[in-house]
Amino acid sequence: MDKREFLKTTGAFVAASMLPHIDANAEAAAHRTNWSGNLTYSTDNLQTPASVDELQKIVKSSSHLRALGSRHSFNSIADSRYEQVSVAHLNDTTLDEAAHTVTVGGGVTYAQLAPWLTQRGYALHNLASLPGVTVIGACSTATHGSGLHNGNLATPVAAIEFVSADGSLVQLSRDKDGDTFPGAVVSLGALGVVTRLTLDVQPAYQVAQSVYENLNFDELHNNIDGIFGAGYSVSLFTDWQHHRATQVWIKKRLANANESIQWPQLFYNATLAKQKMHPITGHPAESCTDQQGIPGPWYDRLPHFRIGQTPSSGHELQTEYLVPYEHAFDAILAVEKLHDQITPHLFVTELRTIAADNLWMSTAYQRQSLAIHFTWKPEWTAVRAILPRIEAALATFDPRPHWGKLFTVPSMQLEPRYAKLNDFKALVNRYDPQGKFRNDFLSMNLYAG
Ligand SMILES: Cc1cc2nc3c(=O)[nH]c(=O)nc-3n(C[C@H](O)[C@H](O)[C@H](O)COP(=O)(O)OP(=O)(O)OC[C@H]3O[C@@H](n4cnc5c(N)ncnc54)[C@H](O)[C@@H]3O)c2cc1C
User: Considering only CA atoms, which residue is closest to atom 20 of ligand 1?
Assistant: First the structure.
């Protein structure tokens, strides 16, 4: 067995490809890292076309190419050994009030879109914990927020426009291309370079959030639907010690701007926080969105972190697994058994819920889900050793790892967890028959078998 085969068999191959590349040019290439700095991209060749026309020429003449968003993924999903292209300059935004949709250029981030929409009286259904990612980067990896009835951020996509491998411009919509459209939204960057996305919008709304401290897991066991259903979006945080969630963040959607919500002192015996909290115990909370029941616009409450502020810890690694919600508490208990191995390397774990959807490569495809997230300290050697143990503990629940975060699940286990994988590959083949957009991440995770 050669080294490549060994790494693949042990599942470490995916992980190995995520290691920062240490070479003589590292300093010069410092700007070519992802947001966290744990990954140096394998090429210095980054194209930034100013127009769709220019992008089409780049795609047509390139042999291998990968679209890059705002670089927030922790693994090598956006990496290329040949060439990357950023559509940051394609940032037009158009509101269609009659259709209740907004169309955004491929370079637009939620931090740009959300205030713009709000000024015009509109909102999206949900956001992730931070607003700084591109809309297309988020949709490509099935990025999600929380809420028992909230689909991930790709679920409101109504139409998509992309440049396929031969340089032509393809437009697909939910209404006209119902048979293949669900495969094109969570695309993992495999279909082409997206130039425009159309999203459903709804009237702007206000949200108020409060935080409770120390929720015993026995309460969670007995009242899981009541706890995750206590708000429009609910997040639990834990360090996996003392059989409890350290914090519960409850985000309630207001029926109107004047609605006043009463927050009881006790929530399933957890206590209402008296001051503004950061999810990571001990971190200053200035970067967080307002709590203590103060109402505010949807985009300044649904994410945990404010626009323009450093989200989370900054210097960190992230992992996340989605399991069926019906097994949520058993999955939590399975991970809890590893607590003494996990906690020393952990900043914090977040537990969220996501509604089921029909997007073929979505981590919530036809499964209402619990997402078990880990924000790790930047200790990759230790984290890399723990991930297979967590994955083994969760294996009975068929966990689907977040496409943009670190995992070591071997492809032979991953592939059966996506019932529409073969349809997705056929769709990819239609728009990219030569594998122009296929990178090592896709080869290892989808095409290894
Ligand atoms: C601090 C932090 C907090 C996070 N919080 C959450 C969270 O709350 N919930 C959650 O689910 N995830 C979260 N994530 C993960 C993050 O949302 C995903 O990794 C997301 O994919 C990052 O988007 P991006 O714009 O940075 O894209 P990148 O990471 O640059 O790329 C991601 C994928 O999108 C593709 N892509 C980008 N642009 C295009 C394009 N124009 N055309 C075609 N494909 C394209 C890339 O090829 C790649 O496959 C978080 C990440 C960080 C760093």
Answer: 138
Give me the phi and psi of 338, to 5 degrees please: -95, 15
**The pLDDT value given to residue 312:** 63
Whether the CB-CB separation of 251 and 288 falls below 8 Å is answered with no
3-state SS string for 2-18: CHHHHHHHHCHHHHHCC
| 3-state DSSP assignment of residue 139 | helix
CB of 316 within 8 A of CB of 347?
Answer: yes
Q: How far is the C-alpha of 435 from the C-alpha of 439, rounded, in Å?
A: 8
pTM above 0.85, yes or no: yes
pLDDT tens digits, 241-297 = 999 999 999 999 999 878 889 999 999 999 999 999 999 988 899 999 999 999 999
Distance (angstroms) between ligand 1 centre and the Cα of 141 equals 6
CA distance 323 to 332: 10
Q: Which two tokens stand for residue 4?
A: 């490549």
Please give the distance, rounded to the nearest whole angstrom, from the Cα atom of residue 403 to the centre of ligand 1. 9
CA 402, CA 260: separation in Å to the nearest integer?
A: 36
Within 6 A (CB) of ligand 1 lie 35-36, 66-73, 77-78, 87, 106, 128-130, 133-134, 136-138, 140-141, 143-144, 188-189, 193-194, 311-312, 402, 404
What does the alpha-carbon distance between residue 435 and residue 443 come to, in Å, rounded to a whole number? Answer: 10
